[in-house]
Amino acid sequence: MKKESPVKKVAEKPSSTTTTRKRKTTGASSATPRHRSGPKQKRKKERKSAPSNIAKTASSHHFPDWVYYLLMGVTAVCFITGFYYFFIRPYAYRWKPCYGAKAYGVCIPYGYPIHGFDLSHHQGTVNWNELEKTQYSPYPIQFVFMKASEGGDFSDTTFKTNFSKAREYGFIRGAYHFYNPNSDPIRQADFFINSVQLTAGDLPPVLDIEKKGKNIDQLKNDLKIWLDKIESHYRVKPILYTSYKFKTKYLNDSIFNTYPYWIAHYYVDSVRYEGQWKFWQHTDVGLLPGINKRVDLNVFNGTMEELKQLTIPATKDKSTSKQVSINN
Fold it and tell me: Which DSSP category does 313 fall into?
């Protein structure tokens, strides 16, 4: 019996071993996709670890709870203070108890028996039959100012009718011009003169100034031009209307202190202005019969006799010696 060569046996063994290894390798390669760590899995791991990293960062910069509540409290106080200052305080007088006389929906200022109001197209159509009843109330309405013009080209649409009705129903009447700082003062004065015919018994013309424009020195100069031209035409000193703050800040000097002053000062118990004044517009929420919308109410600082002395006087015509009215 012939024996196999040792070389042949050695050559055969590697072949079987190689096959086994290939099978193992093949099995390993087929399992690899289920266990490999690719880019997608890395992203997932990063996403999962991101919140924990953020939490660690936040916790390292986290403020104490008392600081958070302190900031919230300060913010709330600032908000409430600002709200009160801009929306409550200016109108607080509306909610104050009225310990004095109350009429026309408001608390009437004490010590002023002569009452009036002012009127424009904003109040709409007026029922003068109903309004006349206020003359016989415990606090009679006896005078009325009406808006006649604004700037150099605007006429109030209700002025002619209301101005005529006021005289017809026995009210002492007056007319005012709303001044525009951006318009020529001479043009504005001429426009008012062409719009308003005042007669004996009427109150002097009124200059209503509420806007200062771009240059306060220019404004003062222009206002003086308007006032001088109006005084020269109607032969009576005009009334200056403006708010308490505007007057004290911009027009509180000797030039304008010589004019009868009509002060606008709302929701206060008394006038704070230290100078002389003739009329006080004390509220803008008055209610009068015959007028559907709220109106500005005023009082006169004096007696009825003094109010009449303030009106335009009748003059005598030298050629006829008859009483005639001042008109344009």
Answer: P
- Which of 118, 202, 208, 296 is the catalytic position? 118
3 state DSSP class of 207? strand
- Under 8 Å between Cβ of 247 and 212: no
Active-site annotation holds for 274: no
Q: What is the DSSP string of 35-46?
A: H---HHHHHHHH
**210 catalytically annotated:** yes
Token pair, residue 123, equals 């109040």
Per annotation, catalytic residue among 12, 153, 168, 210? 210
The residues spanned by each domain of the chain are: 66-95, 98-324
Q: Along the chain (328 residues), what's the average pLDDT of each consecutive run of 10 residues?
A: 44 46 46 50 53 49 78 89 68 65 92 96 96 96 98 96 98 98 97 97 98 94 98 97 95 94 91 92 96 97 97 62 38
Rounded distance between C-alpha atoms, residue 24 and residue 93, angstroms: 97
Residue type, 317: D
pLDDT (0 to 100) of residue 66: 83
Q: Give the closest residue to 190 by CA, choosing from 239, 145, 229.
A: 229
Whether residue 189 contacts residue 229, with contact meaning beta carbons closer than 8 Å, is answered with: yes
Kindly indicate whether the domain formed by 98-324 is annotated with CATH number 3.60.15.10. no
Instruction: Report whether 114 contacts 307 (CB < 8 A).
Output: yes
Q: Whole-model pTM?
A: 0.70
CB 203 within 8 A of CB 239: yes
For the purposes of burial, counting CB atoms within 10 Å of the CB of 154, is it exposed (0-12), middle (13-18) or buried (19 or more)? middle
Spatial distance between the Cα atoms of 294 and 117, rounded to a whole number of angstroms: 11
Element (H, E) at 228: helix 216-234
Q: What is the pLDDT of residue 71?
A: 86
